[in-house]
Design a protein that fits this description.
Chitinase A, domain 3, single chain, 5-stranded antiparallel β-sheet, about 50% helix, Alpha-Beta Plaits, about 20% strand
Length: about 450
Amino acid sequence: MNITQENTSDLTAIIKIELLKEDYQEKVKTLLKDYQRKANVPGFRPGKVPFGMINKLYGKSVLAEEVNKLISDSLNQYIIDNKIDILGYPLPNTEKTTELDFDTQEKFEFFFDIGLTPQFEISLDDKFKVNYYNIKADEDIVNKYLSDLRGRNGKTSKPETAEESDKLFGDFVEVDAKGMVIEGGLKGSSQLKLENIKLKTALTKFIGAKKGDQITFNPAKALKSDIEVAALLGLNTVEAADFKNDIQLTISEIDRTELAELNEDFFKLVYPQDKIEDEKQLKERIKKDAEASFQSESDRQFMNNAVEMLIEKADISVPDEFLKRWLLENNQDKVTPEQLELQYDSYIKSLKWQLIESKIVKGHSIEVKEEEVRNHIKGYFMNMTMPGSEENDERMNTIVNSIMENKEEVRKIYDQLYDKKLLDFFKSNIKQVKKEVNYEEFVKLATQIK
């Protein structure tokens, strides 16, 4: 057997495998003798069928199977032994590989195209700067949180008709300009606070509405922000910013809440561990909690911005023609060439990030160990039992062992801890340009990220 590699560009190569008779004949002969021992042919006792007959019956298929297996194993081993870092997997080169004739051919030549992983460098020096948005809770946000707290702890009723301060529950469907339901459009169940409607003409449709009424309106025009649109339609803020159609809401229930009074009992109810004496102190505490809850969104956006910048700075070249062939073959009957062209840029961006991520992870030994996963699970259940006793420790270990057997759940925890480590690495090694914004400003900035 002879295996050679010829580079056809900086990022592609052809591997040629030349297979001679001596490479496969002994294995084929052994397999055919095994067939001879087991063959059940009329007119012959078991094990007494002439080898020539067995060869005539099965020789061609056995030869083809063995040649294909030998080629596959040899190709994979060659890539491993020569430490060739490839993209995807090798593709048969149908132009160079001639049609095979297993009846007469003894020497076989196979050609495979491979895509080579590009070489690049990542430098996280002081010149690499990424915006980090500290989201501040402004007065509108604090008042909204306070109103929600008062509402959740107030007295509720089910009136016959809706007023401006009520909350409506119902089912919605996406409709076109003529009010016709859009097939395959958005639909679902949701709730709508009428106080979130800024457009007076839309609000008047709801005032006096009753259970069972159907009301058509445009969320993008009627509501105060993309945040409210996202909450109503069950979308993220980016998707909500792109939603422009009307919806038809069928009211199933009307809720009216008499807000809880701002007094000492209410302060103790919502923050029992704090000594809050007046509305000012309560708003200060709400502001602190709100800004703490925004940190995960700030972190996520920082990570997104960092990834975008890393992809841009790395300037990675990829073998486009090879990758398109590989993607079509890997997704046969799932993706057409036309669909691939539309999705290709998105795929390549994802691939480039995978390459960058892999280099960072290997270069800085970022990993998640099994013990970290076990400790994470223990921490989650710690509040359900009193630690310290042997009985509770055994119970906790039983719970952890049970969850560790669930591969899907363990993978999710691994991913969660891994993402946290990668975020911590970025926050420690990338210069952050701190910018203070309110939530409305943050949402607008987030939707501008491509």
